[in-house]
Design a protein that fits this description.
Elements (H helix, E strand, L loop, with lengths): L7 E4 L3 H11 L4 E5 L3 E6 L2 E7 L11 E6 L2 H12 L3 E2 L4 E3 L5 E6 L2 H6 L4 H8 L7 H6 L1
Parallel strand pairs: 1-4, 5-8
Antiparallel strand pairs: 2-3, 3-4, 6-7, 7-8
């Protein structure tokens, strides 16, 4: 079965606005179903559900959504679009305007961190970054 598990994002009346916002940022994205309580949508083929659950719960950075990027242009795109109206943090983390946390990371980071000789230099480089810079990581 496809997408047996997917996240449910809790909103206080902004589920449709959030789904529209996220779908405008990610390619190959669409709203698949909606009613006044729930909006289901796909971002690059990944299913999500937005729930108008009320003011009881707020997003926390204890859960974040990782976007692995092949190019600096992708990092720049997601960083600017998802962070607009939110808050930028360190090491590729940001909070979007709805309060949800995202990690915008280069896909090459895993390979660089797997090299025990290079990993300390890569870590030293990226802890100084807010938005990741692929070239600087490669040169570390």
């Amino acid at each position: 079965m496809k997408n047996q598990m997917y996240p449910c994002l809790w909103f206080d009346g902004q589920a449709k606005a959030a789904a529209d916002y996220y779908c405008s940022i990610f390619k190959n994205s669409r709203i698949t179903a909606e009613n006044p309580i729930v909006v289901k949508f796909e971002l690059n083929g990944n299913q999500f559900m937005a729930l108008n659950g009320g003011a009881k719960y707020k997003p926390t950075p204890a859960t974040s959504y990782v976007v692995e990027c092949e190019t600096q242009e992708e990092i720049d795109h997601y960083w600017e679009k998802l962070g607009e109206g939110g808050r930028y943090d360190e090491c590729g983390w940001l909070d979007d305007k709805f309060g949800f946390s995202w990690q915008i990371v280069p896909s090459v980071l895993h390979r660089l961190m797997a090299d025990p000789e290079r990993a300390p230099r890569v870590i030293a480089a990226f802890v100084k970054m807010s938005k990741f810079n692929i070239q600087e990581l490669l040169e570390a």
